[in-house]
Specification:
The structure holds 2 protein chains of 2 kinds. By secondary structure, chain A is α+β, with helices and mostly antiparallel strands. Chain A is 33% helix and 30% strand. In chain A, the strands form 2 sheets. In chain A, strands 2-5-1-6 form a 4-stranded antiparallel β-sheet, with helices on one face. A two-stranded antiparallel ribbon of chain A has the order 3-4. In chain A, a hairpin with a 6-residue loop joins strand 3 and strand 4. Chain A is flat and about 50 Å long. Chain B is mainly α. In chain B, helix 1 crosses helix 5 and helix 18 packs antiparallel against helix 19. The radius of gyration of chain B is 25 Å and the shape is elongated. Chain B starts with a helix and ends in a 10-residue tail after the last helix. Classes of the chains: A alpha+beta, B mainly alpha. Chains A and B meet through helix 2 and strand 6 of A and helix 8 of B.
Chain lengths: 128, 421
């Protein structure tokens, strides 16, 4: 079954409550997202999901040279960064979009839905 | 090629293209394979039919030929389980998936107009896959380079495949929302044909309006009568027919746009008007029988029915038009709808009332906004301001006939009376 990455983006500048204005708003969103995750598991779509620490905690590593080079900060400078994600398995995009809409409502953010590469698409790339 | 065979091929292309592509798309689950195989089958027909004669059932012949071409390709490209896959495709005993309506062509339309595709891609893909227009034809229609259009279509097909956009009619409860996207695509195609943009295009592109009407007919015929979305599909078809009916009267011999008010109503296509009116009556009956309230296409069709009922522009029931626009504003509160409503308001309450409405609309830079302001200012005797607005409208209008019309209107303005005279 096709796999999809559902990413949630949020502001790079976080409040003390992540991307939420108040503690109450954060707790509500957490509760709704938790319920949504439970539903994904119960209906067999869930592969993995988690939230990320803020973008400023990221380190970029370039290991292509002789010595690896480490750089502070996220890979791209941006006003918005990946804040969390789900990986789901769904029969087609319509199902994935429906789930993304529910997830978006639960976590109070926009969700990008992107398919994973498949064995078939890689084979096609290789011209086999 | 004899005219008979040529005519048979043209007819088959018009009637069978979508069916062939749609059948193959379901069977092979790949739009690329379906499109290429359909194109090859038609090329084979061009080669064979003059020699062997036109088959008794051209559609079946084309589907069989296209299936064979597609199988050849799958055989060439198959990696593993090739034989098994081939057998499945050959016998195709898997029942077609059932949606609100069980028809491959409708499935194709919904796939091409999927909301995950960009609006430009939806239009292009629909014209290619469902309409059977070639990539160069579509590129010409939308004034883009052939390579750009080719890339747009292949990118869309690539997304359908990679993202898993299903080849399926949405479930009944999703049909109205999803169908609205389909109808919007067809309306865009029709409008581009009816008010073609660009200095080098004909003011009316009959190829596009005809194609849009044909596809609107197809979609409407595929939906169950009175079922979800049927009313709006019928409304869109009626709207197109009632607009198309006036096409001959709409551009003068000198290539100038003729407004509804000035049109020779005797030049309207009475058959199209009659069919459009009949469709509007059907939608009204469906609403009266407890169906869903009319959406924007049914309301726009009703507006056009009012216009085409009047034997003379002076007989137009403008208060009825305003009433319909009042309902339309509630369904579609966009400033463009408010602008069109204001045009009708001018006829009922006067140009000053209409101008006050128009002036509040955030449409600066939209040619119809400036053209409407210009007309209202002219009627209020404010010639200098009207002249300026005509100038803005002329700058912004992309349609040659419209530019010619606006230019004449501007040049006919009488100067403002001198103060004190």
């Amino acid at each position: 079954m096709p796999k999809y990455l559902m990413s949630v983006f949020g502001p790079a500048e976080r409040t003390p409550y992540g991307s939420y204005e108040t503690k109450e708003a954060m707790l509500e969103a957490f509760a709704d997202t938790g319920a949504f995750n439970d539903k994904l598991v119960a209906e067999g779509y869930f592969v993995y999901a988690d939230g990320l620490a803020e973008a400023s905690t990221a380190t970029v590593v370039d290991g292509q040279g002789e010595q690896p080079v480490f750089t502070d900060g996220p890979y791209l400078e941006s006003k918005e960064h990946l804040g969390g994600f789900w990986i789901i398995e769904a029969p087609d995009l319509d199902v994935a979009l429906r789930l993304a809409a529910e997830g978006s409502k639960a976590c109070r953010g926009k969700v990008e839905v992107r398919p994973f590469q498949t064995e078939e698409s890689v084979r096609e790339m290789l011209g086999q | 090629m004899t005219p008979d065979v040529e005519e048979a091929i043209t007819r088959a292309h018009r009637d069978e293209w979508a069916r062939v592509v749609a059948t193959l798309a379901r069977r092979f689950r790949d739009l690329d394979v379906a499109e290429d195989a359909a194109a090859e089958a038609f090329a084979t027909a061009v080669e064979r039919w003059p020699r062997d004669g036109v088959p008794t059932t051209p559609g079946a012949w084309l589907t069989t030929t296209a299936t064979r071409k597609a199988l050849d390709r799958v055989r060439r490209e198959s990696h593993r389980d090739g034989k098994h896959e081939e057998a499945r495709l050959l016998f195709d005993d898997e029942p077609a998936p059932r949606g609100a309506v069980d028809d491959d062509r409708l499935r194709l339309v919904f796939t091409c107009c999927h909301p995950a595709l960009s609006p430009e891609a939806r239009v292009a893909l629909t014209l290619r896959m469902v309409g059977g227009l070639t990539v160069p034809q579509i590129a010409r229609a939308f004034l883009v380079q052939e390579t750009t259009m080719g890339q747009r279509i292949s990118r869309a097909k690539g997304k359908i495949k990679a993202a898993g956009i299903p080849y399926r009619v949405p479930t009944s409860e999703d049909v109205p929302a999803r169908l609205d996207g389909v109808l919007t695509v067809l309306f865009l195609v029709f409008n581009e044909g009816y008010l073609a943009s660009g200095p080098d295009t004909d003011p009316v592109r009959h190829d596009l309006t005809t194609e849009a009407i044909r596809l609107a007919r197809l979609v409407r015929d595929l939906l169950p009568r009175g079922g979800p979305g049927w009313g709006e599909a019928t409304g869109l078809l009626a709207l197109m027919l009632l607009t198309q009916a006036r096409a001959a009267a709409r551009v003068s011999a000198t290539g100038e746009l003729v407004t509804l008010e000035e049109q020779d109503r005797g030049a309207w296509d009475r058959a199209l008007v009659a069919e459009g009116h009949d469709l509007v009556r059907q939608t009204l009956a469906a609403v009266a029988a407890g169906g869903p309230p009319p959406g924007r296409f049914q309301l726009l069709a009703a507006v056009n029915a009012v216009h085409t009922h009047a034997r003379d522009a002076r007989d137009t029931d403008w208060s009825q038009v305003v009433a319909l626009y009042d309902r339309l504003v509630r369904v579609d509160p966009s400033p463009v709808v408010a602008l069109n409503r204001a045009v009708a308001v001018a006829e009922v309450d006067g140009p000053d009332v209409a101008l006050a409405i128009v002036d509040r609309l955030p449409l600066d830079g939209y040619h119809a906004f400036h053209a409407t302001r210009a007309e209202l200012l002219r009627r209020l005797g404010r010639s200098a301001q009207a002249r300026e607005e005509y100038g803005r409208a002329i700058e912004l209008a992309g349609n040659t006939a419209e530019v010619a019309h606006l230019t004449r209107r501007r040049d006919q303005l009488v100067p403002d009376p001198l103060p004190g005279s």
